[in-house]
């Protein structure tokens, strides 16, 4: 039996939709409706072969939609595969890093990619540029580095980094890999500045998890081909087929994946990509998310018991906002009371261990609902006593 809420938030204060998670994030009703009608009745999509035209058409919609959204530069291509961004770290370690990577680490996710290249027995230990949670680490040119890697938005802390080339790195032949799992589609970017801009579908793209998507430059495609060409030779490294970027690219060009994808995820993703393009693309979505995040930061700034966690306003994420609460207020209790009232998933990243609210303000979330959330938090804090 559901227990009665500790505290009832007046209906007039509640957001129309209470999903504020940082991933999986709010899925729009229209996307869910599209699941029911995906494909015409004569050519249904769900429950049919991923090797036949209806599902291939879905993959084509995702790839062309993303090409549109990111205004794909000449020669760049969109690849996809199963396993999420975590799998892509292994793909990158296996196929893109030749000898040594440099990682900007300023939170959990950047750190996880650094541990992937640390574990790879065929790579030299990576060079790690570290910064404290709540700040941003910046990549720096180094002679012996052939891949530079940074998160675009560190979802665990709510800090975002500008995407820009490391000085002279391209002339050195190095690649820039950007983990844009929670930023792609909602933060401004010129993908021409990157070699691989990769992400998953469960954050900005409001779908389920399980896929990785990667916008790849010609240099990245060429690097993978060269590294993988040594696979199987006496001196070459072992690249499992599941982790082969070259194989993923070959399948993607045919609007396929190496193995069976979650078709429902592709439906939700295709709908969201096309919705973002129709609404006005990256300029529209980044302005909308900045409005939502700005409402949270301004609200926190106007309370003496709340403050943005990220000190530098330029580094405050416009997609995942983190707000510290005064120690006198138990954030865990606030999060629980909100959940009892249908306002969901504003807990901080578990390993960050702060007395904090973390709010996903992806484009699917209405800015008015974010303002309603702040009123709900005010109400809870005032009445918890
Ligand atoms: C969520 C997230 C990931 C992990 O994505 P999975 O699809 O669960 O592997 C990686 N990087 C960032 C920046 C994220 O936000």
Offer a few descriptive terms.
binds pyridoxal-5'-phosphate, Aspartate Aminotransferase, domain 1, amino-acid biosynthesis, seven-stranded mixed beta sheet, single chain, three-stranded antiparallel beta sheet, Aspartate Aminotransferase, domain 2, alpha/beta, PyrdxlP-dep_Trfase_major, 385 residues
Any overview of this molecule?
The structure is a single chain. The chain is α/β, with parallel strands linked by helices. The protein has 2 domains: 11-28 and 281-384, Alpha-Beta Complex (Aspartate Aminotransferase, domain 1); 30-277, Type I PLP-dependent aspartate aminotransferase-like (Major domain) (Aspartate Aminotransferase, domain 2), CATH 3.40.640.10. It is built from 10 helices and 12 strands. Strands 1-9-8-7-4-2-3 form a 7-stranded mixed beta sheet, with helices on both faces. Strands 10-11-12 form a 3-stranded antiparallel beta sheet. Strand 5 and strand 6 form a beta hairpin. Helix 2 runs parallel beside helix 7 (263-279) and helix 7 (263-279) packs across helix 8 (281-301). It starts with 28 loop residues before the first helix and ends with a helix. The model has no long low-confidence stretch (mean pLDDT 96). It binds pyridoxal-5'-phosphate (PLP). Pyridoxal-5'-phosphate is lined by residues 23, 84-86, 109, 151, 155, 179, 181-182, 200, 209. Catalyzes the reversible conversion of 3-phosphohydroxypyruvate to phosphoserine and of 3-hydroxy-2-oxo-4-phosphonooxybutanoate to phosphohydroxythreonine. Pathway: Amino-acid biosynthesis; L-serine biosynthesis; L-serine from 3-phospho-D-glycerate: step 2/3. Its EC number is 2.6.1.52. InterPro entries: Aminotrans_V_dom, Pser_aminoTfrase, Pser_aminoTfrase_mycobac, PyrdxlP-dep_Trfase, PyrdxlP-dep_Trfase_major, PyrdxlP-dep_Trfase_small. Its cofactor is pyridoxal 5'-phosphate.
């Amino acid at each position: 039996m559901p227990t009665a809420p500790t505290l009832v938030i007046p209906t007039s204060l509640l957001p129309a939709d209470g999903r504020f998670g940082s991933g999986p994030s709010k899925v729009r009703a229209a996307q869910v409706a599209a699941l029911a009608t995906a494909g015409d009745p004569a050519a249904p999509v769900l429950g049919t072969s991923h090797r036949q035209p209806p599902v291939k058409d879905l993959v084509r919609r995702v790839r062309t939609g993303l090409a549109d959204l990111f205004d794909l530069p000449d020669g760049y291509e969109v690849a996809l595969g199963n396993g999420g961004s975590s799998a892509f770290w292994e793909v990158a370690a296996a196929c893109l890093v030749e000898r040594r990577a440099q990682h900007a680490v300023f939170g959990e996710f950047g750190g996880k990619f650094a541990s992937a290249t640390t574990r790879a027995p065929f790579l030299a230990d990576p060079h790690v540029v570290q910064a404290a949670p709540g700040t941003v680490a910046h990549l720096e040119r180094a002679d012996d580095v052939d891949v530079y890697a940074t998160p675009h938005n560190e979802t665990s802390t709510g800090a975002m980094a500008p995407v820009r080339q490391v000085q002279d790195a391209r002339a050195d032949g190095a690649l820039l890999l950007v983990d844009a799992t929670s930023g792609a589609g909602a933060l401004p970017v010129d993908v021409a500045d990157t070699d691989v801009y990769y992400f998953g579908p469960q954050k900005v793209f409001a779908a389920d998890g399980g896929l990785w998507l990667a916008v790849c430059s010609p240099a990245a495609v060429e690097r993978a081909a060269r590294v993988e060409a040594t696979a199987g030779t006496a001196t070459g490294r072992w690249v499992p087929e599941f982790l082969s970027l070259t194989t993923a690219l070959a399948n993607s060009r045919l609007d396929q994946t190496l193995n069976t994808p979650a078709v429902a995820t592709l439906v939700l993703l295709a709908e969201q990509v096309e919705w973002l393009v129709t609404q006005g693309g990256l300029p529209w979505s980044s302005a909308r998310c900045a409005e939502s995040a700005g409402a949270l930061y301004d609200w926190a700034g106007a309370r003496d018991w709340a403050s943005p966690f990220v000190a530098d306003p330029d580094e405050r994420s416009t997609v995942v906002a983190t707000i510290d609460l005064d120690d006198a207020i138990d954030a865990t209790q606030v999060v629980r009371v909100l959940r009892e009232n249908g306002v969901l998933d504003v807990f901080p990243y578990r390993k960050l261990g702060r007395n904090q609210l973390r709010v996903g303000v992806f484009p699917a979330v209405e800015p008015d609902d974010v303002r309603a959330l702040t009123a709900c938090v005010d109400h809870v804090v005032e009445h918890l006593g």
